[in-house]
């Protein structure tokens, strides 16, 4: 029987285009969450907040009356149902995206959207603010994964956008590793934007989800590093189309492709290959690589790599800075992808 050879492609040769309409149509959960439901969410009994959050989110999605209880939601006297949005705050790999996708699937509406924070800001960049508002106005639900405020421009755009949509009846569901009143801390002069940040946080009811990163439960915590022969054999056996790029060549190319198009950059691949990985020292390069890793992980593509271990790709100074949580999330995903 004749085996089909793997087609080797180079991401640095790809220059994808993506229209605003295609970007809007792509605002659905990643394919690994196509069947995500509240019933399929695996609650860790060691962390009661997971069950509590799941129950509250199920009520939010179905429109049932939220429970009145003390403890987790008892800080403010306002009734929780007055909030048009829910905000899932928790660490890496505790199932926040699964629960967000479960909300999306459970809400019985035709007009609903699911995307990462960067996908929504990219939509505004591609279509303009006014056109984006008009396209999203009337949506029953907006799901925003990995909510981040990394610069003042994003702060202003997202507060205005969400404010207008909430006023027109849209409900919101978001995930992040940062509570909404702390968004922007350590990244820019957050005190100059407190009014905008607090106005946004007032739209959300925060649910805390504790737990252990599921990606690390069955892993040794280290990325797999291959030698050149192992690397070549892994790509040759990947089937379909596998990419093969020098790490520096990919990092340079990412600067020439808008992050909204990274999903098209990896379109049709069965594996991603990176040769001669090194530690990144430039913040802009590191943040672009994080956005790329998110798309690779969402597409469930294995990563094969040589050089430095991918868990060491972000230097100590970066991990101690304002983007620490973003880099740690990327490391978690990189390690898991090398074991896939």
TrEMBL record:
The keyword Plastid does not apply. One of its GO terms (molecular function) is ATP binding. GO terms for cellular component: cytoplasm. The keyword ATP-binding applies. Keywords: ATP-binding, Cell cycle, Cell division, Nucleotide-binding. SUPFAM superfamilies: P-loop containing nucleoside triphosphate hydrolases. GO terms for biological process: cell division. NCBIfam families: ZapE. This is Cell division protein ZapE.
């Amino acid at each position: 029987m004749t085996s089909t050879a793997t087609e080797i492609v180079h991401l640095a040769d790809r220059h994808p285009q993506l229209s605003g309409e295609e970007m809007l149509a792509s605002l659905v959960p990643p394919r690994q969450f196509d069947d995500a439901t509240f019933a399929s969410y695996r609650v860790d009994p060691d962390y009661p907040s997971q069950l509590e959050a799941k129950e509250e989110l199920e009520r939010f999605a179905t429109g049932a009356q939220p429970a009145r209880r003390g403890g987790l939601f008892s800080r403010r006297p306002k009734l929780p149902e007055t909030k048009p949005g829910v905000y899932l705050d928790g660490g890496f790999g505790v199932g926040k995206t699964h629960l967000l996708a479960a909300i999306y699937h459970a809400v019985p509406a035709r007009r609903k959207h699911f995307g990462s924070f960067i996908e929504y800001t990219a939509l505004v960049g591609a279509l303009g603010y006014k056109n984006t508002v008009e396209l999203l106005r009337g949506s029953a639900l907006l799901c925003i994964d990995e909510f981040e405020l990394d610069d003042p421009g994003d702060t202003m755009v997202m507060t205005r956008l969400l404010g207008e949509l909430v006023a027109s009846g849209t409900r919101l569901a978001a995930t992040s590793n940062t509570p909404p009143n702390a968004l922007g801390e350590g990244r820019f002069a957050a005190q100059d934007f407190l009014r905008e940040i607090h106005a946004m946080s007032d739209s959300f009811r925060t649910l805390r989800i504790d737990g252990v990163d599921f990606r690390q439960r069955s892993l040794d915590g280290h990325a797999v590093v291959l030698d050149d022969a192992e690397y070549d054999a892994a790509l040759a056996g990947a089937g379909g189309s596998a990419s093969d790029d020098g790490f520096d060549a990919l990092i340079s190319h990412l600067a020439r492709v808008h992050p909204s198009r990274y999903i098209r950059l990896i379109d049709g691949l069965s594996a991603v290959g990176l040769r001669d990985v090194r530690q990144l020292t430039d913040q802009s390069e590191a943040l672009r690589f994080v956005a790329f890793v998110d798309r690779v992980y969402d597409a469930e593509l294995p990563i094969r790599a040589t050089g430095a271990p991918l868990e060491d790709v972000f230097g100590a100074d970066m991990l101690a800075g304002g983007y620490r949580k973003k880099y740690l999330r990327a490391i978690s995903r990189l390690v898991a992808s090398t074991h896939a």
